[in-house]
Amino acid sequence: MGVLKGSIGYAKFHVRGALPDDVHQRFLARVRARAFKPLTPEDEDDASVGWMPIERPFDDEVSFRSEGVFFGSYLNLALRIDRWKFPSSLVKAKMAAAERVYRQKTNKERISRAEKAELREAVERKLRRDGEPTTKTADFTWNLATRELRLFGKSKLVVEHFHELFEKTFQLRLLPAGPYITGIAVELPKGLERALAEVEPTAFHHRGARRAAEVA
Amino acid sequence: MARTKKEDSTALDALDARLQREGDEEGESSQGPSLAESIETRRFLGREFLTWLWFQSETFEQKLSIEGFGECELWLERSLVLEALTEAGKEKATLAGVAPSGGPEAREALRQGKLPTKAKIALRRDEQDFALTLDADGLSLSGVKIPALLKGDGDDPFYERMQLIEEVEGAIESLYREFLVARLGPGWDKEVVPAMRAWMSDEETPALVRYKSTHSRG
Question: Is A195 in Cβ contact with B45 (below 8 Å)?
């Protein structure tokens, strides 16, 4: 799924708040400040979230040029989320092996909670050194003229991270386009906006009449 | 003839300002539902829109005239999901096939009080074919198919792709606006709902006949 190619499926948002006068310069600086940073095995955090150029979301080195971010009146970027994530069965197996070795070395029957925590840290560090983080990316395209933004990724994880990073980067707010917000955005004739806020579900059938209020 | 979108919507700005105010006042006593709650509780409008669209397509033999998009054919195809909330919990029906919306199971599901939550929609305008899956609760689009238009080396794939995406999305929004004008107006209960009930029951009642003659499309 992507802005430039691939399948087309997206969550739409309306961007609210004032744009700065020097949009290109200001936004490019802010994007660079929140560029993606690759995870290392020694990082305390188990995830890294940041912006990548939309044409090269998997590059090891990040660099943003204006022409790679601004496409006419559109601003295009990729959100990248890398996480250290290992199957729980693998972690369990490695822990069991580590505990066996530890007991043999120390001649201890019982391992304390603190010792287990240390062993777990060592196991995870080794897994990180031997493995690769999982990577998720999601493109977005933002029409700066219409202030509509389309995020090509709908999972809860992606949308939550995107929302947080977008608002921190651009200091603007996102309104998700659903039935109510879209009803406002399409600019109904005068008087109908109030009705939009007060309307109740239609009972198309008797069964629906009993359930209509509960569905709402 | 694309409808020009306003660059600045004062209605959306007012909504945003209200949401921020409510965020600042969170925890303080307030009368009535918050705007955030209102947004959540309006989701049923998406399902009613999809039902209305299905009704329009079948009643007017797939011929629609959509503001900003033009004359086209629109139909539901391949897959349709309907849901209802009952005493026993959520009831769901997933219908698949070449034209599941035209089958008896679809009408039976409607008569049981289920409404469509997700549908694959096809549009044909002149020689151009579009398709999308509409998720009613979020009014979100997925599986969007757009015609391939690139003619020469000078054409930019990104702009063409965005133009077509925005066009088909704009068509859905125009239809949603048309639905809301009907839905929120005085004719909904008196005129539209009786016609839709007749359609759901496969009965050519006077209400449905009247609706067809006064709302003839294309």
Answer: no
Q: What is the pLDDT of residue B104?
A: 83
Distance CA A197, CA B137 (A): 16
Q: In the predicted model, is pLDDT for residue B148 greater than 80?
A: no
Element of type H or E holding A180 = helix A179-185
Can you say how many angstroms the Cα of residue A215 is from the centroid of all Cα atoms in its chain? 29
At residue B15, what is the residue type?
L
> Would you tell me which residues 110-169 of chain B have a C-beta closer than 8 angstroms to some C-beta of chain A?
110-113, 115, 133, 136-146, 157-159, 161-162, 165-166, 169
Q: Do A71 and B16 touch (CB under 8 A)?
A: no
Q: Does B100 touch chain A (CB under 8 A)?
A: no
Question: What residues does A136 pair with on adjacent strands?
Answer: A81
| Distance of alpha carbon B130 from alpha carbon B124, whole angstroms | 6
For residues B69-83, give the mean pLDDT. 91
Backbone angles phi, psi at A215, to 5 degrees: -60, -40
Residues facing A81 on adjacent strands? A49, A136
Judged by a CB distance cut-off of 8 A, whether residue B30 touches chain A is no
State pTM to two decimals: 0.87
Separation between Cα atoms, residue A7 and residue A26, nearest integer Å: 32
Confidence at residue B154, expressed as pLDDT on a 0 to 100 scale: 54
Q: Which of A180, A188, A192 to mutate to test the interface with B (most CBs of B within 10 A)?
A: A180
Q: List, in order, residues 6 or more apart from B157 with CB less than 8 Å away.
A: A4, A5, B150
Domain spans, chain A: 11-84+135-178, 88-130, 186-216
Model confidence pLDDT, tens digit, residues B195-218:
999 999 989 999 999 999 998 765
Question: How far apart are alpha carbons B121 and A171 in whole angstroms?
Answer: 37
Q: DSSP 3-state assignment of B216?
A: coil
Q: Which of A12, A26, A56 is nearest to A152 (CA)?
A: A12
Interhelix angle B193-200/B206-214, nearest 10 degrees: 120
- Say whether pLDDT at A112 is over 60: yes
Answer whether residue B32 shows pLDDT above 70. no
Cα B146 from Cα B161, distance rounded (Å): 8
Residue B36 has φ and ψ, to the nearest 5°, of: -60, -40
What is the predicted pLDDT for the residue at A211?
47
